[in-house]
Fold these 4 entries.
Entry 1:
Amino acid sequence: MSTNTERPATYGGWQAERMGVIGNLSGVGFTLVAAAAVISLAPIYQRSWSALLIALPLSALLLGLAYGRVLGLTADEWLLLAVRHQISVATKKNLFLSGAFAPRNPKTGDQPMDLPGPLARLRILDAADGQGGQIGVVLDPTANTYTAVARITFPGLALIDNERQNARVAGWAAFLRAQCKEDSPIVRIAVHQRSLPDDGAALRAFTARHTAEGAPNVAKESLAELMMSAGPVATIRETYLAISLSAGRARLAIKGAGGGQIGAAAVLVRELNAMQGSLSSAGLQVTEWLTPRKVAQVIRTAYDPHSQLEFADRNAAARDADWQGTPPGVDPALAGPSAAETGWSVYRHDGAYTVSYQVRNWPQSDVFATFMQPLLRPRQNARRSLSLVFEPIGPSVARRELAKEKTKRDTARKVRAKTGRSESEDERREAVTAREQDRARAAGHGVARFTGLIAVTVTDYEQLETACAELQADASAAGIEVRRMWGGMDAGFAAAALPLAVGLPERRIF
C-alpha cells in the first residue's frame, strides 16, 4: 500500500488595493482635510479671534468626516450613502413594481424593464453556440460587456489526497493565468455558488425506478408522504461560472465577426470554446451553457425562492419527449421580481429578505485551499450565495500597478522613519508581500484583482438576524472579515446573489 507524503499547499499574500490619494485618504477625504486646514488657518492670518471660535469647530467636523469611521466606512462615505438613501426613499426610487403593477410611460405606453435598480439596464440576448444550440448572453450596454453563464460541477477538495487537491487548485490557477494576457477580451470571471432546498426530483425518480409493481398501496402512499416531507428539507448546491467579454477590447475581432451584438456574441462563444480544455484541467465540468430562459430562471429563483420547487417540477416534466407545455426556464421578460424594496440594512424582494456582505479582509496567515468551507455550510433556515469575481490583468498593466504599489509603500515607510514613528508588523508584512508579488509576476505568474460577496436570504423575517449571526460566525471561523453593505443592499444583491459577474469596482487611477 502506497502512502501520499505530499503536504497540502497553503495560500496567502492577498493585498487590499490602495485607493487613497494621500495615505488612506480618498479624494473626498483629502478635500475635507485641505478645507479644514484652510478654515482653521484663515482666521489666524487675519488675526480674527472671534472668527477662530467658529472656524475651529467647523474644522474639527471636517476632520471627523475625513478620519472618522461609522459601520466600517469612513464618515464621509457613510454620510454620502445615508443622504443618497434618504433621497431615494423620499422620491420612492427604492421601490420597484413590475408587470401589471408597473406604471406605463405616458408617451410611449411601454412598461419599464422587469429587472430593478442596477440591473434595469441589462438585456438577455439569444446567441448561437456554434454547435447547433443556443446560449443566453447578458448585455450590459453601460459597461459594454457580454456575459455568458455556465452551470458547472466539480469533484471537490475535501475527500481527496493532497496530491490531487494541489493539482486541481493548480489547474484553476493556470486557467486564471491564461486570461492574464495583453489586451485580453475577457474582463471578468465569476464563480457563484448558492445553496437551495432540494426539490426532491432525483429522490422521486430513484423511488419510481426501484418500487416493485406489486408493492402494497399503503407502503406506496407512506413512501410518497415521506418524500414530500423529506425532500424539501434537504439542501443542494448550484455552482455557476460567468465569463464577461469587453466589446471595447475585442472591437477588431467583433468587426471581423460581422459587428454589432451578433459579432460580439460570436467572439464570446469562440472564447468560451477555447476555454474548455483549461476548465477540464482544473476539474470543472461544464454541464451546460445556460440558454436565455435558463439565465432568466436563475435570476428569478434568486428573487423568489418559493418558485424554485415549481420550476424544478416543470423542468422535470419538460424532459418528456411528449411534453407540449411551457419549455424549461422562464421568459426573460419575467426574470425580475414582482415587487422589491431597498432598505438601509435589508433588501426585500417578493416573499424573501436578503442581507448582502462584502469580504473586506482575507485571512492574514497562510491557509489551505478548503478554508472557505465554513461559508458554504448549508443552513435549513437560510439560503446562502457566494460570488467570487476576478479581473485578469495584463502583464504590462500588472508591472505598472505593482511598481506603483511598491513605491507607495516604500515612500510611506521612509516618511514614518523620518518622523520617528515605529513600523507596525502589519505594515512590514505588507511590504514583504508586495515584493513577493512583484517577484512572482516577473517569474511569469498572473495578477488578478478579485473580491468576494455573500448574500443571506430568508423567507421568514424573524429568522433574518439569526441567519446573519450564523454567517458572521462562519466567516470568522474561515478567518475572513465581512462587512454588511449598508445603504447599498440592492446593488449587493445583484452582485452576491446572481451569477452575472458584477460587483468588482472599476480600478481607480489617480
Note: The chain has a mean pLDDT of 81.
Entry 2:
Amino acid sequence: MKPLFIVRFSADFATKSPRTRSHFSSIMRKNVHAALAGAGVRARIVQKHGRLFIFASDEARTQAILGRIFGLSNFSPVLTQCRADLTEMARTAEEAFARKVEGKRYAVRARRSGQHPFRSVEVERHLGATLNPYATVNLDNPDITVHVEILGNRAYFFTDRIDGAGGLPLGSEGRALVLFSGGFDSAVAAWRMMRRGVAVDFLFCNLAGGAYERQVIQVAKVLTDLWAFGEHPRLYVLDLTGALDELRARVERRFWQIVLKRLMYRAASSVAPRLEAQAIITGEAVGQVSSQTLSNLRSIEPAADLPVLRPLIGFDKAEIISQARHIGTALLSERIVEHCGLSGGSPAVRSTASKIAAEEAEMDGSALHNALSNLRQIDLGAVTASDLQTDYLFVDDVPENAEVIDCQPPAHYKQWHLPGAVNRSPESVIHDLKSLDKRQSYVLYCPFGTQSAHVAEIMQQYGYQAYALRGGIGAIRQRNDQPEMT
C-alpha cells in the first residue's frame, strides 16, 4: 500500500459557509497536486470526513512538502489502519505499537467522526488495556502518543500531528502586486499575504543594475519554489534609474525618500490592473525608516489607486528577520544592500500630503512613463541557476562609475590594462571582500575570463554589485580597441 497521509484543513475553514468550504477545499486539492507533482511525487487525493486522504509514492518528500501548503492545519502519516471495531482496533494497536511503546511512557488519544456504538474514551481505555503490559501510561508527559482517528467505518493509527502552514489556500482570496526589493521586509510581507490566500506577483523597482536584479530574482524564486504551489508568480522589473535622476534634480533633498515611494506606488498602481491585482502589498512597518513614520505614510498613500496592504505594519525588525528564517529567504535577503535609502543627510520624518504632492509636481512624469513602457516580465518558475549566471554575471562594457579590477598577473598588467584598472589577484579580492564598499559597482577581467567570473560570482553572493567582462583579454582589447600600455 502506498504511504497514506491524513490532512486536516486550517481553522479558517470552520467559519465559512458550506459553499465556501467546498470552494476552498477544491483549491487545496489543486495546490496539493501541483506541489507533489512538482516534486516528482505521484499521488491520489481523496476528500471525505472533512479531511484529505493522500496516497503518495514517496513518504519523505510528501511529508517535507505538506508543511509548506497554505490552508493546511496539520497532517499525520498513517502507520496502519483497520475496521472501526473495538476488538480489531485493539489487535491492530498491539501489532503496530507494542514494540514502539515497550519500556516507555505512553498515552492513547482517540477521536471519532460519524456514528459508532462506542465513545472515544472507551476506545482509549480498550487500547490502553491492550498496551499496558508493554509500557507505563502517562497522560501528562508521554514519550509516545498513540493516536487513533475513527472516521466512518475505518480507524487510522498514527503517532504524529505535524504542523502545516495554516491560513487559507493560496489563490482563494484573489491576487495582489508586491512592491518587492528582495530584502527581509518585502519577502516576509509577501509570504504573510500568501498565507491569507492571496496569490501574488512581484514588482521590482531597480535602482542599481543587473547584479541587484539577480539577487532580487533569487529571493523571489526561493519564495515561489518553496511556497507558491498551485500558482505561477511573475516578477516585473522596472528600471527606475531615469526617474531617480529626475527626482534628484527637481525635488528637495530631504523629501527624496518620500517622493521615491510615491513613484513606486504609482508604478504599482499602473501595473496591477494588467494582472487583475486588487491591491498593492508593501513591507512597510511603522517607524522602521524615515519614510515609514505615520506622517510620511499618510503623505505617500494618496499616490496609490488601489488599497495598500501592509502586513508588517506592527512588526519590529527582529520579528521580521525571524520569520524570514522560517520561510527560507533570510540568507539571501541579508546580502541585499538597501538601495532605496537616498537622502544620506537628514531625511524628513514629518510631512504633509500637500507638500509632498507639490514636490512631486516638479517632476514632469515622463521618466516614470518611459520606465513603464519598458517594463520586463520574468517567469520565476522557468528561471534556472544557469540563467541567473549567464544573464546577470557578464557585461560587455564597463558601466559608468564602476571600479575596474584587473586580475592579470602583475607582469601582464604592466604590458596592457584598461585605463584606470586596479591590479589585484583573484585571491586578494576574495580575501579582502569586507573592505570593499557595497555602494560601489565593480567590473573584473582576467586573461581568459574564467577567474574574474568566479570572483564576480562570489562577490554577488555576498551582496556586491560585481560583474565580469565577457571573454578574455583578447576579446576585451578588441572591443575596447586599446593599444598596449606600459
Note: The mean pLDDT is 91.
Entry 3:
Amino acid sequence: MNNSAVQPNRFRLTPMRPRDPGEDSRAASSLELFFDLVFVIAVSIAASNLHDTVTAGHLGDGLGKYLMIFFAIWWAWMNFTWFATSFDTDDWLYRVMTIVQMGGVLILAAGIGPVFADENFLILVLGYVLMRVVMIAQWLRAARHAGKARAATLTYACGIGIVQVLWVAWMSIDDPAISLAGFLILVLAEVAIPVIAEARGTTPWHPEHITERYGCFTIIVLGESMLASANAVFGAFEDSDDLVSLVSLGILSLLVTASMWWIYFWPPHHRAIGSFGGSLTYGYGHYVIFAAAGAFSAGVGIEVDSQLGNSALDPVLATFTVSVPVAVFVLGVWLLAIRANAGGVVNTVIPVCAVLVLCDPIIPVPTFLTTFFMIIIVITLIVATPKGDETSTATEVEA
C-alpha cells in the first residue's frame, strides 16, 4: 500500500504502513538524495584522513582506521535506506527525524579526525549512536501499523537499542587488543540484527527502488572521488614543473572513474535481490564496493604526493593505493551484480582484467595499466548484453 494515499490524522501524520513492494514508478525521493549528500561529507573526510595518514607512511594504521570508520558510515546509511524502502511516509515527523539523523552524520564526520589523530572514538560513536537511536524511534513508529511485519519492527528496535548501549560501553575499553576484539564482536552483532528480525516477519522491500538508492550513492561517492582527485592534481600544479605527468594522471583518473561508473551500471541490479538471502548478500557486499570507491580518491592523492616527493610511502605501494581499490571495486560489482547476468566472455574478461590491474607498478606511468584494463572491460560490456535483455534488444532493432 502506498502511504501517500493514506489520509493524515489530526496531527498531520500519515500512518506508517508497509509500502507496496510492487508499487509502480517508485523512485528515490528528494529527501533520500539529500540524506545521501550528508553521508558523502563523512566519506570525503574519511578518505582525506586516509590519504594524509598513508602519505605519512602509516599504511596499515590508516587502512585499519578507515575500514572501521567506513563501517559506521555505511551501516547507518544502509539501515535507513532499507527502512525507507519499506515504511517511508514523507510526513513532517518522518522528515524531521531524518534530518536529525543527518545531524548525527555530521557529528560522526566531526569525529573522524580525532580517530585518525589519537584513536579518540568519542565524538564518532556519539554521532553514530544518535543516528541509531533515531532509527529505534522510526522502527517503533512503524510497529504500530506494520501488520505481519510488527514482530520484525520490534526486533529491529530492541536489537539496535541493546547494541547501542554496548557501543557506549565499548569506549571505556583501554586495551587495544580487547578494544579491537570488542569492535569486531559489535560489528557482528549489528549485522546480525536484520537476519534475526527478518526471520520473525519479513519487511517489504522494493527491488527497483532499493537498487536505485544504491546506484545514487555510488554516483555520489564516485563524484566525490573525482572531485578529490581533481583537487589533488590541480593543487600540485604550483609545486611541480612536471605538468605532463600531472595532467596525464588527471586524465587517466577521469577515465578510470568513468569506467567504474560504466561497469557498475551495466547489469540490472534489481535481479540480485529477489530473495532474502540475495538481498543480504547484495546489501552487505556493497560495504566493499563503497569503501573501495571512497579509497580510490585517497589513492590518487597519495600518488600525486609520491610524484612530488612529499610521501614517506614507497612509490610502488603508492601506485597500489590506486590500483587495489579499483580492482576491489570491479570484483565486488562483478560478484554481486554482473556474474549472474553475463555470459562466458564477460565473466572471463572482468575478473582477469581486475587482477591484471594490480600489475600497474611494473611500468613507470602511474595508473596507465589500470586505465588500459578498465577500458578493455568497458569495451567488452559495450559489445555484450546482460542476460534477459537479448529479446528486448532484438525487438528494438527490428522496430
Note: The radius of gyration is 22 Å.
Entry 4:
Amino acid sequence: MVGEEAVSRFVGTGAARRESVRTLANLITVVRTIIGIGFGVVALAEQSMGWLIAAYLSYWIGDIADGLVARARGEETVIGAVFDVVCDRACTTVAAAAFVVIEPRVALAMGIFLVQFCMLDTMLTLSFLYFPHVISPNYFYLVDRPTYRWNWSLVAKAANTSFVVLLCLIGQFWAAVAWGVAMLAVKVVSVHRVLGILAGTRPAAPRPAQARASALFG
C-alpha cells in the first residue's frame, strides 16, 4: 500500500528530511483554501447562507481531495501535513465567523467547536512532529491506536469537522452544543494520553520495525 511504503521511508530515520513543497497535493491545498476562505468572506460580507454552504463544501471536498492525491501519488510529507492543518483552521475560522453573523443562535456551538478544534485539536494534531517515524496524523496508530481511532480515523474526522456544522444547519442548536462538548472531552482525554506518552508514563505503540521483530522473535 502507498501509505505503508511512505511510512517505511521514514521509520528509523532521526535525521532531517528533505521534502518538496512542489506537489500536486499541496497545490490542491492552496487552491481549496483560497476558495474556501474567499467564499467564507463573501458569506460574511453578504450574510448569505448559500455562500456559507459553498465555503464549507469547498473546504471539506478539497480537504478530502488533497489527502487522497497525496497518498495516491506518494506525496505524503511532514511539510504537507502541517500545511494542511494550518489551512483547515483558516477555513474553519472564517466559515464559523460567517455562520455566527448569519445565524447568531449558533454562537455557543461554534465557540465550543473553535476552542476544541483550533486549540486542543491543533496541539494534538501537531504532536505527530515529536515522533520521527510518523509522517502525519494519519499514521498516529504507530504511536497510540486509541488516540488515532478517536481523532483521525475516517469516522472520527467526519465527526470532528462536520457534525456540529450539519446540526446547526438543520436547526439543532442544542444538539450541536452537546456534540461540541463531547468532542471537547475526546480532545482532553486524547491530549492527556499523548502527554503521558511524551512524559514516558504511558507506553507508546511499537514502531513497525519493532513490531515485526517482536512478532518474529518475541
Note: Residues 2-209 form a domain with the Four Helix Bundle (Hemerythrin (Met), subunit A) fold (CATH 1.20.120.1760).
